[in-house]
Amino acid sequence: MTGFTDADVPDQSGRTFVVTGANTGLGFEASSVLAARGARVLLACRSRDKAEAAMQRIRARTAAADLSFVALDQANLDSVRAAAEQIQQEPRLDVLVNNAGIMVPPRELTKDGFESQFGVNHLGTFALTGRLLGKLRGQPGSRVVSTASIAHYGGRIDFDDLNAEKSYDRIKRYRMSKIANLLFGYELQRRLEAAGAETISVICHPGVADTELPRYIPAPLRMFTPLVRPFFNTAAQGAWPTLMAATGPAVEGGGYYGPNGWREISGPAVRVDSNRHSKDPELARKLWDLSIEMTGVDPGL
Question: Which of 198, 207, 264, 270 has the greatest number of C-beta atoms within 10 Å?
Fold first, then answer.
């Protein structure tokens, strides 16, 4: 196969997906395709109004779409807990798509006092996954999808300054959060395998997609966006690796999926590779234990 696109998504009738950050960009496009294939899709978003607007847009494409809203703010661990409690009421959960994230904002802290990029992109993802693993493990063929980035290259976890109290470089902190997503995704798969679980952990990245995510990039750099946009994935194309990770029949636990084009910037989804640092099991265990300590959520693996 030359690459996976939305046309390759199999029928998903009877299956339930949670997609975080589903009201815009990659999350919206993935949710729209999943709903068109018959899935029940829970749009986990901060804003009810934006989620309802997104659901109207999806239903304009697929009138019979089975959709529901879950209030989720990954910058607030109380919100993560409440969202997980709501999702637990669903009859089943087949796939958790951890898509929500932020990119290169000014230094901010989450409600729980964490640097925002690490707090939202990694700790919020870790906590939500940990709270839903029990339900996922009860469903044959279930998956956890984590969204990384080509920005993980050069990323390092600054264990001595996790909340950027000594210094804040917004790009370095974004890279740190993205390599954390890979470390978590690989470690989750190792632990699921060790526990004999059927659930698999899969990781993806969208390449460079034309979404709202880079809205914090300085204005002088944004001026060049129209010139390079033709080389990017659209948001719909950027969702192809997410859809492959979530539904691809040949996808394997611990696999990493991204675009097949030059430097993985754009194109249909294929299996790709990440850097050596992201595969360090000792580093992943350290991050896992620290994440339990910081969030108070133990996935039980």
Answer: 207
Q: Is 159 exposed, middle or buried (0-12, 13-18, 19+ CB in 10 A)?
A: exposed
Q: Which residues of 92-129 are buried (b: 16+ CB within 10 A; e: fewer)?
A: ebbbbbbbbbbbbeeeeebebebbbbbbbbbbbbbbbb
The one-letter code for the residue type at 185 is G
- Each residue's pLDDT, cut to its tens digit, for the chain (301 residues) gives 589 999 999 999 999 999 999 999 999 999 999 999 999 999 999 999 999 999 999 999 999 999 999 999 999 999 999 999 999 999 999 999 999 999 999 999 999 999 999 999 999 999 999 999 999 999 999 999 999 999 999 899 999 999 999 999 999 999 999 999 999 999 999 999 999 999 999 999 999 876 554 444 454 444 334 434 445 679 999 999 999 999 999 999 999 999 998 888 999 999 999 999 999 999 999 999 999 999 999 999 9
SS3 category, 174: helix
Classify strands 269-271 and 256-259 as parallel, antiparallel or unpaired. antiparallel
**pTM for this prediction:** 0.93
Sign of the CA dihedral running 99, 104, 106, 112: positive
Residues involved in catalysis: 174
Cα Rg, the chain, nearest whole Å: 18
The total number of residues written for the chain in this structure: 301
- Please answer whether residues 95 and 15 qualify as being in contact, where contact means their C-beta atoms are separated by less than 8 angstroms: yes
Give the sheet arrangement for strand 95-98, strand by strand.
66-71, 40-45, 16-20, 95-98, 143-147, 200-204, 256-259, 269-271
